[in-house]
Structure of Zinc ribbon domain-containing protein:
Amino acid sequence: MWPFRRKVRASSGRLTRLLVILAVILALCAAGFFLLPAGRALFEDTRDKLGKPVPITPVTTTATTESARHPATNTTDGVRNSYWGTSPGASVTYTFRTPFRLVDVIITNGAGFTPKEYATQGRALEMDLEVTTSSGEKKTKKITLADKAGTHTIVTAFSDVKTVRLTLNSPAGLTQGRQLALAEVEFFKRS
């Protein structure tokens, strides 16, 4: 019968079909290899948005410099009208007990939450956020803050976080007799 007993000729296109199939398989493998990191990032980002962020408190807080009356531990005391007093270029390092997925960081810049408190000291308009994972890998993010009182929410999306370092740059309102102030830093992990 015709469909079952077809005669094959030497130029029937088998080699062409085989080459096309191999090219498609190779293209799919290459696409999977190159798109895997983007797919993983999209998956983690979706999980971040679907979950509710939960606050997490660091175990230790250390700074490169601090004033005697305004230590770096004031940034994690839960009170927004006490602050860490320091100089430009100083950094504060927060160490956590166990690695976690850092979803958000909320920063209360300046000397306090209200506009009156905020304007009493200098404040950093740019910060470098450096995250160190439990394996020792370092990731950085540049943060630019508006020069206004209140909280600033920074979406971070870093996995396996063990320590976070904030370096204060671009001071504003820093005149004679004033110091650079950072009122509060809050960290949120994925639930």
